[in-house]
Amino acid sequence: MKINILHFSGTGNTKYVADYLGEKLVNTGHDVKINSIDTNPTIDEDVELLILGGPIYAGNVPEKMIRWILRNVQDKNVNCIVYSTSAGLKNANGVDSLAKKLDKKGYNVLAKETYVMPRNFYFGKYPKNTTQEVQDMITNTNKQIDILVDRLNKGKLYLADKENKGVLGKDLLAETFSVMAKFMGKNFSVDEDCVKCGICVKNCPEKNIIFDDKKEIKFLNKCMLCTRCIHNCPKNAINYKNNKYAQYNLNKYIKK
């Protein structure tokens, strides 16, 4: 089966799911192509299964992803699977927004999956997960994906429940959070540890970080609060409200 997996991933959780899922599908004989929407990919004309995934920000997938789907995913009568990664199942309904968008475009939604993954946004009241918690989450996510692939290969995936709860409200929340993020993003700054390597400038999904005329790092007003800049900085030199945070690197927890 020809499968396209498209995702948006701020700091690696959603990408991990896409890569692990893709590996399992390839190992069972499928033709799989994986792309981030950061690269503005196209969906293959002869695709037989589309898999689309994103993280949960404030109860829904990011507004950036909603915009991308509405503008770039063409109407098509093809099967699809949608998934989200979340720091807690109480936000699981965010995946319904993806399902409804694709359902309206003619796709047949076979499954709506939510994977509980480690927290990468731990400002204020949100604590960082312990090493054991992270390892347990990865193990459970892998098992959940294994079950999904097994059901797909055995033809046991059927049309998912079309009752997508509270999607309008969640989409409005995504838009509201997107506006809030632009203001909250002004609280980012770099400290004296910054070596001006430009990794944050290159990797920012909204092109919100630039070098100014003095070759200093500058944060604009387009932030989406993915925190990719903090966690990818090789010197951990990016602060939020002048506070330095422990970096999240999923790769160090993955067993090779």
UniProtKB/TrEMBL annotation:
Pfam family, one: Fer4_10
Gene Ontology MF terms: 4 iron, 4 sulfur cluster binding; FMN binding; metal ion binding; oxidoreductase activity, acting on NAD(P)H
Residues covered by the Flavodoxin-like domain: 3-142
Keywords: 4Fe-4S, Iron, Iron-sulfur, Metal-binding
Cofactor(s) the protein needs: [4Fe-4S] cluster
Domain 4Fe-4S ferredoxin-type as annotated: residue spans: 186-214, 215-243
Function: Ferredoxins are iron-sulfur proteins that transfer electrons in a wide variety of metabolic reactions.
The name this protein goes by in its record: Ferredoxin
